[in-house]
Amino acid sequence: MNIESLLKQKTFSREELVYLLSCQGEDEQKLFAYSKHLRDRLLSNNIHLRGLIEISNLCIKDCLYCGIRKSNKQAKRYALDEAEILKAASYASQNRYGSIVLQGGERNDPDFVREIESIVYQIKKQSGQKLGITLSLGEQSEDTYRRWFDAGAHRYLLRIETSNEQLYQQIHPHTQNHSFSTRLKCLQTLRKCGYQTGTGVMIGLPFQTLQNLADDLLFFKQTDIDMVGMGPYLEHRETPLWSFRNRLIPLKERLNLSLHMVSCLRILMPYINIAATTALQAIEPLGREKALAIGANIIMPNITPAVQKTKYQLYENKPDTDESAEAATLQLIESVRNCGCEIQWDNWGDSRHFRNKTLTASPPMTSKAQKPLKSPESPAK
Ligand code: 5AD
Is the CB of 112 within 6 Å of ligand 1? Predict the structure, then answer.
């Protein structure tokens, strides 16, 4: 396969993607250089921040890979209260992050829905509507998604985990509330509500093949997703998937494969937001920077209050857990510079892919809290 002519294509077949995901040596260098070039040319070298607030590890789900699954009795449970979340959000505003992500274990009880609605509303209010809010709180009803959107959230992340239904079933319990079709439906509902919609997968899962990963990339394209956060699967001993750890590819290979995924996705969908995820950093201290250096454009510094941060253990060796928000920010600025990129402060950093769609759509997305086009940001160069 001639890599130069392959890279010039606008889209790829599954087989071509399998090749790109596995190429090494000179071809790998050319792949990485091209995805970086595209990001720099189309989106500039600007990196957008999302202050990540892990609001709670209480979870009604029992995903077979996840350290905060309901059945893990070893997990020390916590939930930040409203004041703690508002304080963390205020830290993000004052430090010019521009945007935050509220992420947590899944709950859908009426108290939770109400609390989130109120917190989102208050964060918008206390920041003078300046802080962009992304939610990552799992599968919810259309009514809940709408309420949170109307309160002021404008982006939502819900990973599909894998686009292969059979593999999805292998890594989730076979109960009614772990259904692949519900997950897909939720992604559609999120867009219908007007959210910039993000998804993602884990890379290097037991039973996963390169073909599955190529299909994941094509799935992102087919569903016309606005943002993607994906990273290596990392085994956790208090989960059922731990027993398959002997089938996994080595950590370094999982990291490398994740970089190939980021690179291919940047070429397939040049204008979307792609996160350099924390799981990359769990394998290698500069794992996230490696993703920024080849085309990712989002980074999510963890600004969860230090006392609770250690308890949000989705996987083992989760980094950053004993570092203060201040120390993490300083270190981040430095390392973003080191990979030739620049942080865009005070900026929502919306998905250009979404904005391009919204600008050409008629009529535009409807909902009273949908204001990304009025965000305090300059157009990307
Ligand atoms: N390894 C890597 N990522 C994980 N997640 C959950 N458990 C693990 C794990 N063991 C990811 C899932 C989920 C996100 C919040 O964290 O993709 O959607």
Answer: no
